[in-house]
Amino acid sequence: MLKFHHAHQSRSGRVHWLLHELDVPFELIRTDIPRRDGSGGRDPQNPHPDGKVPALDHDGERVTETGAIMLYLTDRFADRGLGIAPGEPGRGAYLTWLFWYGGVVEPVYVLEVLEVAAHPAAQATFRDRDAVAARLIAALEAGPWLMGARFTAADILLCSPYLYFPDATPDHPAVHDWIARCTARPACQRAQEAD
Ligand SMILES: N[C@@H](CCC(=O)N[C@@H](CS)C(=O)NCC(=O)O)C(=O)O
Fold this sequence. Notes:
four-stranded mixed sheet, single chain, 2 domains, alpha+beta, 50% helix, Glutathione S-transferase Yfyf (Class Pi), Chain A, domain 2, 8 helices, Glutaredoxin
């Protein structure tokens, strides 16, 4: 059984959406986390080593980190077609999108919030929001999804920062149209309603 540890309005929303896309049975375990406004607190029942969300437990197999959970789920339920399986054409690009998100996209936006995005070390390691935008636009102009004809978990992960922070959305019609297509998906709406 999949046990999914989730907190309302948090990064675990992306995994919640993916689980609805996969249409597999799962147990939703609502978890408290410390919030920036001082509310909430760490839940001792949460198996995440840092007390964060998302966390997944699959028959005792524990996975944390959003990208890793998405890869685990789309590989494990490969028949649902929401990832690119090992051996399939496009596997490299699929892994690249998932790892680029955690390794580059989130750091870029966090560095901006910290007002150190222009630091040469930040530029050398991560580049910046323009480079993020350029890569998304190049893929989405071909579109309709990041992997071309096929919607995958990469679309869920990469569109997610713009759902939480719309002002950060790259101002390009291909990106706006993609986000509208993503959020119009019934599974996205089901996850939001359940949340
Ligand atoms: N890199 C992690 C980040 C997880 C994360 O920071 N989650 C936040 C929710 S938005 C959290 O649980 N915060 C609670 C805390 O910091 O204790 C991932 O993508 O899974």
